[in-house]
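Troubleshooting: if your tokenizer reports a length mismatch, compare your output against this known-good record of 582 residues.
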Amino acid sequence: DYCARTLWQKWEQAGEKAQHKAEHDLRVVRCWHVLKRAGLKKGQATDAVSQKYSLSTKTISRLLTKIAPFEEKDWLAALVNTKAIANRRKAISNRARIPDEAWEIYKADYLRSEQPSHAACYYRLEALAPQKGWELPSKKCFRQRLLATVSEEMRILKREGEHALFLRYGSQTRTVEALSAMSALNGDGYKHNVFVRFPSGETRRPVTWFWQDIRTRKIVGWRTDISENMDSIRLSLRDVIDRYGIPKKISIDNTRAAANKDLTGGARNRYRFKVKEDDPEGLIVALGIEIHWTTVNLGKGHGQAKPIERAFGVGGMDEFIDKHPALAGAYTGPNPTAKPDNYGERVIPLDEFLKVVEQGVHLFNSRANRETEMCQGRMSFNEAFERDYANAVVRMATPEQKRMFLLSAETAKVSKFGKIQLKAGGKIQERTNQYCHDALFHYIGKKLIIRFDPQNLHGSVHCYTLQNTYICEAECVEPSSFYDRDAAREQKRLTTRKMKNAKELAAAQTRLNELDVAAQMSQLKIEDEELPPPAASALVHVKQGNTVAQVSAESLEDEQHYEAAFAKRVSLLMAEKRRNEI
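Known-good structure output:
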């Protein structure tokens, strides 16, 4: 009897070299047994195997003896040479002695974030040894001891940090089979390694925001700007919606530009900026698009969560756009230590650069034999998208929704004059842009969502309620000169027209005038009130000081004289009026 588990444990510990040797020996003994069952005698079978594998008959006999006590299923484990295991145990027992304190100092010196070399750690320890009275083994001994006793995970954690250890565990494998074309997008900004001159005269490395379909990996929209900002994200998404429809989900980083309130305001899981109850709904939220923020692991972004990151790597936008021959001389290199020899020779105008971006995206999408789940090494991103988009159910945007994406959003309170002021344009000489419309009088004192074009603040703006209900298009009111008569006449004309319209509306609202109302009220009959007699009555005496007041006869005479004079004056006035009429 034997323990098969112990036998196979020795097999696992034997090492790769001993395992390969055991597999070769197993083929030898199995060949011998096949010949024996075929009718050959033992000697004949041994000679045949010896000739085939170039082994001595003694070696074959030794192998047969070695497997004799075991079942055939355990022959492989029985044939493994355990000498390597014994040698390792012997090596452990015969290790050179390292003083405990010296070993701890060596480990603490080597396992730190500055990542010193083995040699430097050993030289420092060697300089300290005479003072401590240590006898140190060789430098190689320290290195081998560290490799044998400290795991690779511990070494990475101590020397390279938590994030490096996290990356060693590998990424999650996900499938896009359940998604349809345009059902989910992911987006990110890419800073080009090219010097570009913008219309303002400034020379910068531009940033392009890309939107990519997650299922097919096709880039479906992009916008280039001087930096990654809300406008480039908004306008590029508007381009996608205008051409392909509204996606159901998007995945973006939780950056200040991407998580802007104008885009994602109202999202429950938005952890950027201060959240207020009267914050307007962001454009993405208003369209019913579900937002997924990419994860942040150990304080660093997790770029692998977005497939668009692969388009920024080797063979991506750097090759198709930044290194385009039309941009030769303007390429900066991927980092300051990899500048080309013609660094800074040219600066590309923005309009030329945009043409190269468009061409580069087209080439990126059209490249055939893509090794992705949907392309399967045969198709391009364009071909995969065309195939799947034809079978997809996509929501298309209305003209009103497209207009929302053309404009930025800000909340503003309607003044008592029916005007609104925007903070977007800032202040010039303590003045801000004001906008007015007759419909705003119904919302005096209330906050509204104002959508505007940040590049045309002197144009009109669109006013919405906080629930995104459209109200009106308000025009910008420009201040006029103090003695500008034309502006004054125009203002008077507008005021007169508004007053006339208001009167017409008021007349339409009330069919009866005040005389009609008075005539109706004259028909109201008021009946005398019948009160029951009181249970008792008492005489009230008016007192002045301690005596009862008496009515004076002189006061009665004066009152009668005044009434007669008043009646006489009224009769004179009536006579004068009749003469004038005649």
